[in-house]
Amino acid sequence: MSNIRIVTDSSADLPQPVADALDITVVPLYIHFGEDTYREGIDITHEEFYRRMEAEAPNLPKTSAPSPADFMKVYQEILDEGDDIISIHVSAAFSTTYNNARLAAQELAPDRITVIDSRNVSMCLGWVCIAAAEAAMRGDDRDEIVEIILDMLPRLRIPSFLETLEYVRYGGRIGSAEAFLGTVLDVKPILAIEDGKVVPLEKVRTRGRALERLAAMARELAPFEDIAVMHTHAPEMAEKLADMLADVHPRQNILIAQTGVAMGGHVGPGAVGICAVVAK
């Protein structure tokens, strides 16, 4: 094992048992319902979050990044244990999380902390953290781990469909997709992340058609090193999509998980997506 520790943020959607097993430190984002503030994964569960979001609509929750002080506290504890840090975070186009982590690293120990913008989110970020942590446990040094990370980033794919445009428009994450999608209310937009930003792919009319298109996209991208089906309070659709992907990846190796509340607040309930690492 090397003396490198991996740090990420809660938008990576890492299952807690995985983070614990690989000694990955997860810094929580914040969720705000009016004047109430919660730390993702600590003060509020996914079920509580989605229940409250639906109950309080149209007043939607907001999210905010961990502060530089939050990162400094986490970093200092790890540095005091004698370990160096590789800190991997959600796309800087989506959040100030990466910039706040970078500020903290520069303040504390820039020679011992490497901060990387994954240019992605959810389990696409999560897969990178897992690979980096596994490399650290094998004894790889900092440069070797960074090389693994940089090799993975161009191979991440995250096609997803949303039940509604309401949440992503409110959160300001829709970018160039706004003009493409227009004001049609009954479409199921299929989006992706390219170069760290949300881009539109297609418009379909039904959930069934959206799942079919995601499965078709996966077949075009296959084979995969890793793949997850992520959802926002839509487990049945996620299971259905995973079944549809069994011809491109072993079904038992397809992770199904609920997207964390920080991301769920931006895309809203009913979204389903694929987070995959395309094989070399």
TrEMBL record:
Keyword Mitochondrion: yes or no? no
Name of the protein: DegV family protein
| Alphabetized UniProt keyword annotations | Lipid-binding
Query: Which top-rank group of organisms is this from?
Result: Bacteria
Parts forming coiled coils = none
Q: Which GO terms describe its molecular function?
A: lipid binding
The cross-references to Gene3D superfamilies, in alphabetical order and at most eight, read: 3.30.1180.10, 3.40.50.10170
Against InterPro entries, the record matches this protein to: DegV, DegV_C, DegV_domain_contain
Q: Which SUPFAM superfamilies match?
A: DAK1/DegV-like
